[in-house]
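**User:**
If convenient, please work through this fold.
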Amino acid sequence: MTYSPTHLGISTLLLYSLMPKRRKKYLKSNPITFFLLSLGALIPDLDLFFGGHRYISHSIFIPLVFTLIARYVKANKYENLSFNLQYLGVIWFSHIIFDLSFGPLALFWPIDNRFYDIILGVVFDMKGNFLLPITITGLFMTVILTD
């Protein structure tokens, strides 16, 4: 399991570094908003206190709902609220991606109640060339379903 400081730190740094300058300016002028939005990276783990960890709150549909609501809100001219919802959705999704590296998640709840464990890998070959001693010969992905 990814630790809370890792979720908080890496997600926040990654998103902040990728966002446009005008959004960075908005967050710099609203540090409390930035802090609260960053805490969104920890929200999926609140299910630890209610049982069923890595279940409902780790579904990809929750951040998708935040993003869809953000689009609707933006159409109604609430740009800052739209950005906040979108940021929350993306940081929630980043939490799910990090947790995929440490065991199964109910990724498609409520449509599918099974747990998905996705393993990504790289295949190396020791036959390199004069610049690199190894070469990448393939990529693989394994999906394990459990009930």
